[in-house]
Amino acid sequence: MSDLSTQALYAEAILGKDAEEFLKTDLGRYMLARAEEEEREALDALANVSPWRRRRIQQLQAQLWRARSFTGWLAEMITAGRQALQQLETPED
């Protein structure tokens, strides 16, 4: 493994660990709960909005995308960090 790829793996592993640590903080837990609440609110509103209210549907879809993206990005960072760490710990053949 080259020096550059090793450095990239270390950086990714650190970023993933930082994301995990963030979710253990009060701010991280608050942000995650807020995103989940925003997702629920958008889904509830989408279920009840009239089909001809296109602009409102678009707003709710954007709200839903934002909430899901936030949680998805954190999950992706954590997963990528764990995979990078696993690659670093696996001996080369």
Task: Explain what this protein looks like in three dimensions.
It is a single chain. With 93 residues, the chain is mostly helical. The protein has one domain (3-89). 87% of the residues lie in helices and 0% in strands. It is built from three helices and no strands. It has helices at residues 3-24, 26-48, 54-89. α1 packs across α3. The longest helix has 36 residues, at 54-89. The termini are close together.
Summary tags:
single chain, 93 residues, mainly alpha, 0% strand, elongated
Per-chain topology:
Layout: H1 3-24, H2 26-48, H3 54-89
Radius of gyration: 19 Å
Largest sheet: none
Number of domains: 1
Average pLDDT level: 94
Low-confidence stretches: none
Which class of secondary structure composition applies to the elements? Answer: mainly alpha
Order of helices and strands: HHH
Using the alpha-carbon principal axes, give the shape. Answer: elongated
Residue share in helix = over 70%
N-to-C CA distance: 11 Å
Annotation, overall tally of beta strands = 0
Helical stretch count?
Answer: 3
Strand content: under 5%
